[in-house]
Every structure is written in C-alpha cells, then in structure tokens.
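Input.
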Amino acid sequence: MSILRRAAATLPLLLPLSVSAEPVAPDYLRHISFHSPSMPGFRTVDMLSTGFTGAYVTMSSTRESLNLNDVKFSVNHDWMVIKPQPAEGRVQLQMVRQPRADERAMTLTLKNLKTGNTQSHDFFVDTWLTGDGVLDKNFASAREHCARLGGKLLTTQELRAVSRQWFGLSSGRLRALYPEATIFNEQMQAGDSFWVHEAKPLYLHTGTKSHKRNVGTLCRHQYGKGAV
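Output.
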C-alpha cells in the first residue's frame, strides 16, 4: 500500500507540463496593398522608405474580412498625415513636408477598433527626394543644382529603385498626379528623364537611359554624417 502511495505522489512529476500557447499577433499589413497615383498595381509598406513632399499612397484591403474602416492608423511624426476615405473603405498616407533627421525613423500603428488588436511597423526613410522642377542642360549643371539644394544626384541604382517603387510604366503630367509636389514643374511628364550621378539622364518611369538634353534634376537630400 505504501508503494502505491509513493507512486501516486510522484506521478504528477512525471507528467509533461502543459504549455499555454502565446496568442498570435495579427498581421494586418499582409492584407493591405499600397498604391501610388503614378504606379499601377500593388505595393507593400516597404515603398515608404522613399519619399518626397507632396507624395501620397492609398492603402486598400486585399481581404474581404479586413475592412479598413474598422482600423485606426497612426504615425509617430506629423510630416506624414493620415486621411481616411470611408466611402471607398481606403486610407491615404500623405507626406506633407520633409522630415528632419530625427524624424526619419517612423512607426506606423494599426488598431482594430472591433477587436482591440494592434500592430506596429517600424520603417526608416532612407531616400528623400528634393528638387525645384528646373531643367539642366548638362551633368555639371545638374550636379551643382543639387549641391545648392543640399543634396546629391541619385545614382543609377537609386533612381531605378525609385522608379520601381513609385513610377513604373506610368504616364501623364507629374504635377497632375502629385499636385503638391514642387520637385516637379507643371510640364514634367512621368515619362521624362532625369540626371543621375553617372553623368547621364535616365527615364523616370523605366530607369533606362535617355538621349535627351535639358532634362530634369532630382536630388537625394543629404542629412549629414551625424544624422540619425
């Protein structure tokens, strides 16, 4: 009998401990597409690593069960403004000014108003485009132009990345697509070309070489070595 009692006392120690499963955090961004007015098709939140004053993207849900009218969006710096579009069930993110060096580290937070679940996504603005819409007749002029604006010409690789993120095979006047973007003048087209660091002009909407002269100049703002 004593043997049975000892066995019963040690039995709980031999049983495997039950493990409580951690709740899985919702991944709302997986089901949200990002659209720029100059880039047909879906993009992801990664496109926000590049920006310019007057740029904006529209978010829409790719899942029937996710209604963006039920989601509250917020960001941690006011250079980006959130504008819900409840009639369409969409949300716009607008870049209304150039971020300071200490404002480039951003957090986009989503809160489901029905469930209370939240998701935060951190991103960093690596490339900020500047310009004034003025055309330059040669590479030297374009390089000096950017220096006056506190920036440098984009490399070929950088401009092609900007093209893939924001412009693609788009057409039309850039100021019609981005009315608040003063980096473009009233006549610049999405198919126009811009100078790059390698002393040649590339088409903005494809990132391929152009043979035009008197083309546009886009600059990458230089935040300084000590900037965040």
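The first helix runs from residue 2 to 14.
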